[in-house]
Amino acid sequence: MNILYVNHYAGSLRHGMEYRPFYLAREWTRLGHRVRIVAASRSHLRTSEPECDVPLRPERIDGIEYVWLRTPGYQGNGAGRIRNILAFLGGLFRRGKALTRDFRPDVVIASSTYPLDALPCARIARRSGAPLVFELHDLWPLSPMELGNLPWWHPFIATMQFGENFACRNADLVVSMLPKAEEHLRAHGLRPGRFHYVPNGIDVEGWNESVEPLSREVKEALEGMRASGAFLVGYAGAHGLANALDHLVEAASLTRSEPIAYVLVGQGPEKTRLQERASALQLQNLYFLPPVPKSQVPALLAAMDALFIGWQRKAIYRFGISPNKLMDYLMAARPIVHSVEAGNDVVAESGAGVSVAPENAAEIAAAVRQLAASTPEQRSEMGARGRRYVLERHDYRVLAKNFLEAIA
């Protein structure tokens, strides 16, 4: 089968995020299918951008055919990003025939955060006589409406709503990373029987094979904490408002007299403010470490006694969540404190830790105390349940087959 996978922000192991298109395409290629990924040449997510000095530049990566569509660079979420989006959509409309001249797709997948790419993809699918699959990452425009307080009549919201309505009415199948999104999509035109849930996953092969030891600085810092007899609670990832780390800082304050240490590893716009707040509270049990390379994440997580992931209390999460970070945590086989209120909760479903209410430092502190008071064997069993769960349901080898079965 020939699979045309259009994802504005698609990356690779060579270029960095976003990884989901690469992992799915790699598994489909291994199963004998031919996959062509079409992506923009410039993305705010990648650490390395492809060279693209022509309108369309082909490249082969791990057996996958990439076609980079030239777009302008940008920073932030202003006018530059809008120009980038419009350039990508315009390129798809203008060069749809060129993209399929030597590649007649059996299925066309429109996969981006925003829904407008469904329009040019539907045109390509009709010309090719192929079904159209819309892969839903986030609910746009509902997310910027509820998270950014934009009104329904805002031109940006109205445009995105047009795109979502078009995708729901014209897609032969919607594959969603959000398990509870079907009712919302049916209200916007999706017909019954056309919804399928394929969550985010983990590259088990890469996790097991590309593991590097921690740097000397990080290793020595953790060993120093361990030598004091502290129970280590780790967080690894972005330090942003959405990560609700203020409440973890407050939990550290509530347990300051106990043998518990909190280790925040990563970078982000809120890190400096969080450090200043910890300093103002005179917290001696809270440590901030720099980001570690992706290849060192398994070793970092394995060095912790428990792991934390938190969310803000937002109504948009009623449709479900599917964070990549949680996949790493489950693979690490460490018990997890999950501060969340959402349509799904993998930690509770798998028995991999303790789930508490969001934005509640007292409950976070109580969960940490509970895990610290449990036996190593009990914590090990929690971690093992989480690892079994992610291997059975979130291995990209499993998800790639589930995706193909949905298409079939």
Structural summary, described in words:
- The protein has 408 residues and is of the alpha/beta class.
- The protein is 42% helix and 17% strand.
- Strands 3-4-2-1-5-6-7-8 form an eight-stranded mixed beta sheet, with helices on both faces.
- The chain is globular and about 65 Å long.
- The model has no long low-confidence stretch (mean pLDDT 95).
Query: N- to C-terminal separation?
Result: 11 Å
Low-pLDDT stretches:
none
Estimate the helix proportion, in percent: 40-55%
Strand arrangement in the largest pleated sheet = 3-4-2-1-5-6-7-8
Describe the main β-sheet briefly: 8 strands, mixed
| Strand residue percentage | 15-25%
| Number of β-strand runs | 14
Q: Helical stretch count?
A: 17
By secondary-structure content and strand pairing, the structural class works out as alpha/beta
Nearest-angstrom radius of gyration?
A: 22 Å
The average pLDDT score comes to 95
The outline comes out as globular
Topology:
Layout: E1 2-6, H1 20-30, E2 34-40, E3 56-61, E4 64-69, H2 79-94, H3 96-100, E5 107-112, H4 118-128, E6 132-136, H5 142-148, H6 155-170, E7 173-176, H7 182-186, E8 195-197, H8 204-209, H9 216-227, E9 231-236, H10 246-254, E10 260-265, H11 271-280, E11 286-289, H12 297-302, E12 306-310, H13 324-331, E13 336-339, H14 346-350, E14 353-356, H15 361-373, H16 376-393, H17 396-407
